[in-house]
Design brief:
Helix 2 packs antiparallel against helix 3. The protein is mainly alpha-helical and 134 residues long. The chain is built from 4 helices and no strands.
Length: 134
């Protein structure tokens, strides 16, 4: 298996793991009677700060997963998989995981700047991968 496929599998598992963690957190709140199941409105900050950061980290990963899938699909379809592509997949994965973890830790200025840096690493890597397709 090409390493880029493993990076894609791990990115997908990371996104799924964030979603399962969010569902578990919310389920515990409902089961303990602290929240009703309809007290988690989409797109509106609700619950604890951690709950909202977890929600956003999950959505950020979910929003970026199709981009990773598209880049992997195009790279493989065009026969452009090489060592650089395989390493770039893990750069994207690592930056995504670190961005999510930073998001979960906090929202002070330093955390936001670090999170932005990890996001920019992903964006630049995607751009480089797409340029190398030509």
């Amino acid at each position: 298996m090409e390493p880029i496929y493993l990076a894609l599998i791990l990115f997908t598992l990371w996104t799924l793991g964030l979603g399962v963690t969010l569902i578990t957190y919310r389920s515990v709140q409902v089961l303990l009677g602290k929240k009703k199941s309809n007290e988690f409105p989409a797109g509106i900050q609700h619950g604890s700060d951690f709950n909202w950061r977890l929600n956003r980290a999950h959505l950020n990963s979910l929003e970026n997963l199709p981009l990773f899938v598209a880049v992997v699909f195009l790279t493989v379809s065009l026969g452009k998989v090489n060592e650089f592509v395989n390493q770039a997949g893990f750069v994207i994965l690592g930056a995504r995981v670190l961005q999510s973890l930073t998001h979960l830790i906090g929202t002070n200025v330093l955390a936001v700047n670090i999170r932005f840096t990890f996001y920019m690493i992903q964006i630049v890597t995607y751009i480089v991968l797409l340029i190398q397709l030509f």
